[in-house]
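Hi everyone, sorry if this is the wrong subforum. Our group has a chain we'd like a structural model of before ordering constructs, and none of us has done structure prediction before. Sequence below.
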Amino acid sequence: MTHTRSTDLADLLIYSAEVAKARAEGLPIVALESTIITHGMPYPQNLETAQRVEAEVRASGAVPATIAIMGGKIHIGLDPDQLEALAQAEGVMKLSRADLAVCLAQGRVGATTVAATMICAHLAGISVFATGGIGGVHRGAEESFDISADLAELGQTPVTVVAAGAKAILDLPKTLEVLETNGVPVIAYGQDDFPAFWSRSSGLTAPLRADSAAEIARAHILRGRLGLAGGQLVANPIPPEAEIARTEITPVIETALAEAAQQGIAAKAVTPFLLQRIFELTEGRSLVANIALVLNNARLAAKIASEIAGR
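Answer:
Right subforum, don't worry. Here is the predicted structure as tokens:
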């Protein structure tokens, strides 16, 4: 029975030539999500950003594995033609834990969120994943119950996720509370404050701090030895030169949130709407900051993956 299951799984996973070679040679690999390509930016900026993030991972000593669903298969790593096709695709499903299997069953094209990328990375034996910011508890969640599946995923799937904190459009205190409830280590990198995506500080103290990739890698390995479920959230602050200060971005976020409420925008549509409005209200600065923080996270993730591979 076990043999059949593993064969079925092997049939579902398609590795790019670069990732297959890295797996065979035991090289460090960093998983990358694909919703930033399909739902985060317009073409061709989305393609250029994806290429830059992959190049950053390579330059930092690891192999990038952008994950997406195509033709009923989970692609671990995309070749240049596939990346280009995904960047221009329309009607792409935005996948989390709930809809991953349905997308595969229907043979549709799907882009992976944090939760779905974690699941696929773990299936492929990849321990580290770089993203922009995780989802979390939406403001007003005490009435809407709108809480990202990313938080539950971090509590059950053993992947170390490097992000610039949670997206600043969220309720950050409640997000930290839910992460704590789910037993997720929230580790600020090189500072005591929990970063807030576009800003280096949210005004909240992070539960944990680490000052080196080696410490984070060791903690990842020790969680496995201890039999602890779930991964780690590494909160890596945006580089100082790229940040939009909290005092500047907060009123912009409040305006965008008010507009979303006024227009009755809810569920999966909320985040793309807010990010687009914030882009418009900051005259594009939010996107420039977003790209800078993703590149920064790719660099740190590559270092952590290298430390894990070397142990």
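For your construct planning: Residues 2-309 form a domain with the Indigoidine synthase fold fold (CATH 3.40.1790.10). Confidence is low (pLDDT under 50) at residues 1-6.
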